[in-house]
Amino acid sequence: MKRICVFAGSSKGSHPSYESKTKELGKVFAEKGIELVYGGAKSGLMGVLADSILKHGGKVTGIMPTHLFDKEIIHPDITKLIEVETMHERKAKMSELADGYIALPGGFGTFEELFETVSWAQIGLHKKPMALFNIHRYYTPLMKLIEHSIEAGFVPEQNRELIFESEDPHQILSWME
Asked: In what helix (H) or strand (E) does residue 44 lie, and over which residues does it extend?
């Protein structure tokens, strides 16, 4: 794993562990020499992760569509910023650069990115590992929904293996490797 794409919230969330565990993940990325590929913003958990990686000597690549420059504050200290025209180009570039994916807690944008990536894996467009950083059990209801979808016959049982989840960054990265 040289580069991992991380989907994360543009806010920090309401529980202090979201921020503290995100910082821990950033430190582990830097220690292992894993470059972050993400949306390029300074806000929320996205910014917390980028800051932590940079603080510990790691590399960060941000990818942002031009139209978001006013809405999202571009992180001024990242190693590299790639400007694209559309959200579709952003996601395609993130996928092109990444060896795997991790979703941190986040909202609709994070969910959309996660599910598109899982859908792509389901139809064979990639075989990259995907993990949920289940901080403070944030993704536990989603994992229950996935189980329900399998039981209801909408998701093949073998696709349960497409997503790994843990609250331990070392465990996530070991699984991804």
From this structure: helix 44-55
Among candidate residues 101, 58, 99, the one with its CA nearest the CA of residue 78: 58
Q: CATH number for the domain including 27?
A: 3.40.50.450
Tokens of 162: 């497409």
Of 33, 42, 43, 45, the C-alpha closest to 6 is: 45
Whole-angstrom distance, CA of residue 15 vs CA of residue 17: 6
Query: Which residue segment(s) compose the domain that 65 sits in?
Result: 3-176
The number of domains in the chain is: 1
- At 71-119, the pLDDT tens digits run 668 999 999 999 999 999 999 999 999 999 999 999 999 999 999 999 9
Residue by residue, DSSP assigns 12-50 as --SSHHHHHHHHHHHHHHHHHTPEEEE--BSSHHHHHHH
Q: Which two tokens stand for residue 44?
A: 């929320």
